Amino acid sequence: MRPDYKEALRLNNSRLVLRAIAEEGGIARFSTISKKTGLKGSVLRYHLKRLEDLGVIEMEVKGVYRLRYKCPLCFIFESNVPYAYLGLLGRKEGRRESETEVAMSLLRKEGIRPILNYVFTSIEALNEWRDIKVPVQWILCKNDEIIDIDLMKSKVRPQLEALLRDYVVIVDCTSATKPATIAFYDLAQEYLTPLIYIYEERRKLIWLISRERIKRELELS
Length: 221
Known about the structure:
Layout: H1 5-8, H2 12-23, E1 27-29, H3 30-37, H4 41-53, E2 57-61, E3 64-67, H5 73-76, E4 83-89, H6 99-109, E5 116-122, H7 123-128, E6 137-141, H8 143-146, H9 149-164, E7 168-172, H10 178-191, E8 195-199, E9 204-209, H11 211-217
Parallel strand pairs: 4-5, 4-7, 5-6, 7-8
Antiparallel strand pairs: 1-3, 2-3, 8-9
């Protein structure tokens, strides 16, 4: 079951609870949530149970609650949670600088410095980019995966979900094949993660899914 954020945020008290947990970095004690929201006893327990049932939070240990995924809520509430980058890398084709390096440079200009970088690529592309200058965790894709939307989504989904538990994930759909780009776009839409596209020639970063867009989709703006 994927989190139902829209329904979770529909009630004001549930929204207060989620904001309180997000502001604590995605995990908070019952007493802290109560103090930050002003909700007490059975009222707070009702909303915590409601949010658990909607798949948005889970109990870490007794009396401690965490967001199932730290994104999008820690992103839209601008919490102090580290960023991770999830991107694609295509063949070199005469480029001097990889799409990944361009993306990292442009994200830094916006004050975003991911501490983990995961990049899906083919063995052919990886062999051409051995000199890449940013630290990257490579995830190799077979040729039949990188040209098939559903296969690519199945490949990426487990890694995306694992990262979302602890990081705000910036998804970059710039490079590789069109099916891979579509797969990344679809997953970012599904999990409401920020999504970027890079115009390499102009060195321009476009937010396809921005903080403001996520807020609008969740009816928070």
